[in-house]
Design goal:
binds protoporphyrin IX containing FE; mainly alpha
Length: 214
């Protein structure tokens, strides 16, 4: 699989088949999100829910499988070898753009999971039609500690099973810290946007914009 993805691609002179596949998949997912966003705007809650949820879960699954198959690290795997242009272009344009892309996509991925959870928390079905419930939406301290404890237990178990170096352990510690930071940010967001409906629409719009520019 790794060899196949590393073969020369068909879209650019120096690209790999894996890079071409990812580009086409990213394009397809962006189009699906734009359609899902339009459905949300047109108050088609059921269709918006089905499309955004399906597209987000498929996207997360695709990129997880892709990076595992490829051996991870966009900068490390593509590196200078995957870049056919002059050195100045690599340093002054390619690397900064790739850094911005990775930053935007990393924030976008965390937001994707956050938005799916928020969607389920705030959407209600009335006469078979899904709408957003207006009114205050907050996480109880009990739920906060349960999720934090659950994440700690999960990462600790995975860390113990898959332990073989300190570098790998750091990844699991980072995973747990990410959950903790998102929970703390959610507590802050609850103060700025107490209304669940407004929170879903505002952060949802921001997430969609990030996906389109990322
Ligand atoms: C990454 C995931 C998601 C994103 C980025 C997102 C984004 C959005 C945005 C931007 C809107 C407002 C559109 C507008 O008024 O301009 C919206 C509306 C809505 N979303 Fe989501 N959403 C996501 C997932 C979900 C999920 C999983 C559900 C249900 C469980 C859901 C249910 C709804 C509903 C019911 C509406 C309101 C439709 C109406 O106005 O009647 N969303 N969403």
């Amino acid at each position: 699989m790794k060899e196949l993805l590393g073969k020369p691609g068909f879209l650019a002179a120096h690209g790999t088949l894996g890079a071409d596949l990812s580009f086409l998949m990213a394009l397809a997912f962006t189009i699906l999100f734009l359609i899902g966003w339009r459905m949300g705007k047109k108050k088609q809650g059921n269709r918006h829910h089905a499309l955004t949820l399906g597209a987000m879960v498929s996207m997360l699954a695709y990129f997880t499988v892709y990076y595992l198959a490829r051996g991870l690290g966009a900068l490390a795997t593509e590196g200078k070898e995957g870049f056919g242009g002059p050195a100045w272009l690599y340093s002054y344009l390619f690397t900064p753009l790739l850094t911005i892309h990775i930053t935007v996509v990393s924030i976008g991925l965390v937001l994707a999971v956050y938005m799916i959870v928020l969607g389920f928390r705030v959407a209600v079905r009335k006469n078979g039609h899904r709408t957003l419930q207006a009114g205050p939406l907050s996480m109880s301290m009990g739920a906060f500690y349960k999720i934090l404890g659950g994440a700690f237990a999960l990462f600790a178990v995975i860390g113990l099973i898959r332990w073989h170096s300190f570098a790998r352990l750091k990844v699991y510690i980072a995973g747990f810290l990410l959950v903790a930071v998102v929970l703390l940010i959610e507590k802050g967001i609850e103060r700025w946007f107490p209304d669940g409906e407004r929170r879903h629409r505002t952060i949802g719009t921001f997430t969609m914009v990030l996906f389109v520019i990322g």
